[in-house]
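Morning!

This is the sequence you dropped in the shared folder:
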Amino acid sequence: MDTDYGRRPTRRHFLPSALRAPLEARTFREFGYLLLSLPISIVMFTWAVAIVSLGAGLLITFLGIPVLAGGLVACRAFGSMERTRARALLGVDVAAPQPIRSKGGPMGWIGAVLKSGVSWRHLLYSLFHFPWAVFAFVVSLSLWVYGWALLTYPLWQWVFPTYTGHDGIQLYGDGTHNFYLDSPFEITLTSIVGLAVTLAVPWLIRGLAHVDRGLVVGLLGPSRLEERVVELESDRGVVVDTSAADLRRIERDLHDGAQARLVALAMDLGLAKEKLIEDPQAAAKMVDEAHGEVKVALQELRDLARGIHPAVLTDRGLDAALSSVASRCTVPVQVEVDLPGRPVPAIEGIAYFTVSELLQNVSKHSGANRAIVDVWRAQDRLMLQVTDNGRGGAAVDGGSGLAGLAERLDAVDGILVVDSPPGGPTAITAELPWRA
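The structure's back. Tokens below.
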């Protein structure tokens, strides 16, 4: 559910953004970034060309390999500096790529550096950023200076007749005819042109800075493959933690529930056996009570087995399994399942437990008197939606059960979307890969 908590209040401006842009802090930060890019890119370009040339020249000997590896490491250090600069001035937060993982020893470290695609992308940034930095520096600085100079021309036009002997800015001169901007109309027109340039330059600067953002993100950040690996490692950790928590829950339920009842049952039967001869009626009563305990223990074991993986899900699929879950809900639930087939058992089980947990939330927290479960397939995705007419206010945050459910779905490339305004109704949609 989208909320506005934690967001900064929107500031009201009396001037439109087109008029504010030349004086906004963002414009000065991005302009400063473009100006700093030239000297920094000169250093990076010089280093990259020198180290590549030196390393390639020494490849005929063994020295070329460590020289090239050292140069790539320095390029990675430049990249770290550029990510920091982009974060401070451009407002783009690029995660650092994975560190170099060597197999041990100097040769292993050198081999890891040379095999790393991150290192070579940093080298490409050092080479390609230089011509762009020159272009962006020249264009932004020239237009910035000319725009403000023309805008303020009425304030300093007096400099020309006082110190240069000319009437103003010379637009044309061939020795016979000269044209100066010196009349009130020409001075005013010059200032208007300067205003137009000054208002346009910030948007040009933003466009140039956007290209720099793309270079930083594309060449200095982690690749999509690396991000996917990190995501999968994180998801694997979530799956392991979830499985461990489920095992602990099952162990606790067995220990505190069925096991405790069976122990008590064994003790009761032992006492009944002792009283069988001397007090048959008391023994029969104790056996009858034990029989009741057996029924309760069996029911707890069935509930526990259903919580692990219900047999009806394996035998008859989601439609029957979800209908069984809905029948145990404390509010009336309408179940609509429209599936052309069955997904893989793992996805089917996650879908079952997702709906089961959502219906438990409806029973415990929603205050609803009606709920609907919809299940359908959309292309290669399995869609689940649980809606109720309760009080609303559900949210995926750090302290709710929905947060854990969202993590479980994310571990299998699933998504959980919560739409629950205060006062209701609540609609929670889960999306899972089909994987038939």
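Headline: The mean pLDDT is 78.

More detail when I'm at my desk.
O.
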